[in-house]
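Example record for the data management plan.
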Amino acid sequence: MRKWLILLWLLAPVALLSYHFGPGQDALALKQAERFLTEARRLETEGQFEAAIEQYTESLAALPIEEPSLDAPQASQLAVARDKLQLARIRGGFELGRLAETIDSLNLLVADVERRHGRHSPLAYEVRDFLGRVHFRAMAALRLESAEEDVWRRHWELARQNFRYLAENTDGPRNAIDRKNLEVVIKSFNDPPPPTAAAAAGGVTTTAGLNTVLSPPPPTTPAGAVGGLPPPPVPDARPRQPTPDAPQPVANELDLGS
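Corresponding structural encoding:
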């Protein structure tokens, strides 16, 4: 009996070292990531978005590496945590007025999230909702700057299609909000920019680079079928017989489809 006790006492440090360099390291990494996340949220509430972005980046870097030995639930939880931190970091850039950069980052993130977690996952809906809001903000900012209609209308269309996708696919209380957002976007086509948009588009908001946007997701039902809301009128770009003083009109990219 005494020999067994001595053997267990000798093996105890080995067990502790195994835990420290195995699961223990993951636990320490998660605690470190949580500390960075808490600090990022505090900075965000104080409006210090640059510093918050740095803390979100640190939290992302501190997360444990996804190894093949992890079981499916653990790997899924880590993947969701990483994507949520990516989204939080992108939101910080949006608050700093980086519209074009935010749109580019969100288009990449929504593709990654839908591939990893599914097109109908809560996180995919959250990212697409934010993407629709950013396009709507971009549209409002461009209209306030008296941009050409074909420039701001592209962002209006992308906002409409993202909210339409959500209105067609979500359910419960979320669906009511998505349908309301879709209605607001559709009605905004012929309305002047709202006062709230004027405030949002001021300050450090920049519209540089907003002329280049990615294509929206393909619609799943005929245009204007959601909630009985018809699409707004758009200029007729069908070819007409040219005359000496009126050349044949050229259809823009929204009329032709993307």
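Summary line stored alongside the record: The two ends are 79 Å apart (CA to CA).
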